[in-house]
Amino acid sequence: MSFGIPYKGSKNIYATHICESLPSGKRLVDLFAGGCAITDCAIRKFANKWETFLINDIAHEPLDLYAKCLCGENPVPYDWVSREDFKSKDWATRLVWSFGNDVSTYLYGREIEPIKHDIEAWIVDGVIFNNSTILHDIQLPNLVSMKERYSWWRGHKRLLSNLQINVNTQRLLSLERLERLERLERLERLEFSYLSYEQYEYRDGDVVYCDIPYKGTHCKQYKDTGFNHESFWKWAKSRPFDVFVSERIVPDDAEIILKKDVANRANTKGIDGFKTECLVRV
Ligand SMILES: C[S@@+](CC[C@H](N)C(=O)[O-])C[C@H]1O[C@@H](n2cnc3c(N)ncnc32)[C@H](O)[C@@H]1O
User: For the segment 207-216, what is each residue's pLDDT rounded down to a tens digit?
Assistant: First the structure.
């Protein structure tokens, strides 16, 4: 099961462990919510652990997309977006069409773009294009729905990779993920805000979780907030309530409550060497 929208730095893979480790309370405050994986997991799998949920991030876009998906209004169409058109598209479309969902780098390299175009044209519309010769080597079945063609494609991994055809259709996976975000009943349990963390006002019974941008990584998607880690830790330590923080580099005096080894995909160049992620209480 995946949680939240596709988002760089998403806690999707181990959202369940984080939700298990956080204490119960009246309201779960996801102060750096981004793609909302933590709240999404909390409300779907731990519905009785918290009564309400505050989803906050300084960036509007991911929160707005998440909210739309929950109401069944995924705003990203299946239409093909070319490298040329990419830059002029709205945020949600660029999210789905970007490499590693970084919103700024077009998903496919120049050489692979015509091949991906043809593959997707067949999967989405059942049309066989001639931009590349790739589909000529395969006996494509006559299937009526996109769902059937997509599952045929995914079910023929071995055959296709023997023909040197990359089966991965990342954009369709991202779209699928947005579609799978089932509508949520009882949306009144969710509140949204768009504040910088220092502006948050504590309420009795709040459990405050902070998934801050990793120190030392370069997430183009949210670098313009100029996030200052020292100021953040100073703020967290001076709160009169517990603050739960996910980070890789944590202060020596923080209480580690969860440690997970994960492959770091926080930049487009691949794994950058950090692998242990901690959830700490300060
Ligand atoms: C690591 S991401 C959060 C990922 C999220 N937990 C998820 O599962 O998708 C960090 C988030 O912090 C947000 N952010 C950066 N500076 C902020 C600030 N001063 N106050 C609140 N949010 C901030 C960024 O917009 C970004 O979405």
Answer: 999 999 988 7
